[in-house]
Design a protein that fits this description.
152 residues; alpha/beta; Adenylosuccinate Synthetase, Chain A, domain 3; four-stranded mixed β-sheet; three-stranded mixed β-sheet; 3 helices; 7 strands; 24% helix; 23% strand
């Protein structure tokens, strides 16, 4: 497994479920990938630094079976709440993510092709990602096939 900081990495039980559902294995090596909740702090930072004009949220369907879904909204560093990505990369080893929990939709989304057909809870989750990241949502995928990409 990789050694880079992944603040929102989930424990092995949930991580294994996400990995299996999303087929998160290296294409060449077959090595299992690390999995975590959406980190709006790092995406907001990436959007600012890279001038992102649109966001593509992939594999929404992987979350179809969850009762609750988390979004990281800030970090705690030495007990202090930090809403911005740390300037010192070493801080990533010492932080704890703060989560906001969202209601799951527990409905298969893989056959849906229009944004308005997604479950209300999925649309609310995506709207919150857009709001927290500060980058407009452009695409959502509900599977691995090309026809499973929804333009927003």
């Amino acid at each position: 497994m990789g050694k880079a900081p992944l603040p929102t990495e989930v424990d092995e039980g949930l991580g294994q479920s996400l990995r299996e559902l999303g087929q998160e294995y290296g294409a060449t090596t077959g090595r299992p990938r690390r999995c975590g909740w959406f980190d709006s702090v790092v995406v907001r930072y990436a959007g600012r630094v890279n001038g992102l004009t649109g966001l593509a949220v992939t594999k929404l369907d992987v979350l179809d079976s969850f009762d609750r879904i988390a979004i990281c909204t800030a970090y705690r560093v030495r007990g202090e709440r930090v809403a911005d990505f740390p300037a010192d990369i070493a801080e990533l080893d010492n932080l704890q993510p703060e989560y906001e929990w969202h209601e799951g939709w527990r409905v298969p989304t893989g056959s849906l092709r229009r944004f308005q057909d997604l479950p209300r809870q999925a649309r609310a989750y995506l709207a919150r990602i857009e709001e927290l990241s500060g980058v407009p949502l452009r695409y959502v995928s509900v599977g691995t096939r090309r026809d499973q990409i929804i333009e927003v």
